[in-house]
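Figure 2 data, in text form.
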Amino acid sequence: MRSVLVSTILVAIVAVAGLAIPASTSRLTVVMDFKGPWSPPAAREMQKESARILSPAGLSIDWKMRGEAISGGADANFVVMTFHGSCQFDSEPPVYDELGPYASIRETNGEVQPFGDVDCTRVVSSARYAMSGSDFDRQNYLVGRALGRVVAHELVHMVTRSEDHAHGGVQKAALSGRELIGAPLPLELAEVSQIRRALAAAQFQK
């Protein structure tokens, strides 16, 4: 009886927070195309972090490498994320002072396309400069967290076909290095609702 009561309370808390458990889940395949060196542990954490952020909106992600997707065939609902530069924590980081976006989406005639580009060198650099002390003992984990938040941000743009940003959370127009590796950075309630509407309208694969 106690376990049932606890479960009921947890569900109620989630609902009050505006993140009620979705009745159904839509699946999206993300095809990963790494153009430079990358860390498997960081990539795994990237996938976990993106999933944590997007799951309240009812979106489940299947991850595939580019070669795997080509040989096995990708699902109808898929996007391609191309990772440029070094997607790993390097002992001797490159000098990288130029300002710019962590990632971008592609457009055709003003319409958002299912293709995105991540500047790993810039993301890893921002994460590195935000680290201190024991953070360096889990550098791959934090690099993966940072990449996961950047990827989740771009996936929201692709799924909703919108370039809009939020006032807070992972969908802010700009994120600091500390925000990339620090405390949880969820979607705001407005973005959760927007994603659910987009998934329903697109009739994504269940």
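Caption note: Helices lie at 2-16, 40-54, 66-72, 120-130, 139-160, 177-181, 189-202.
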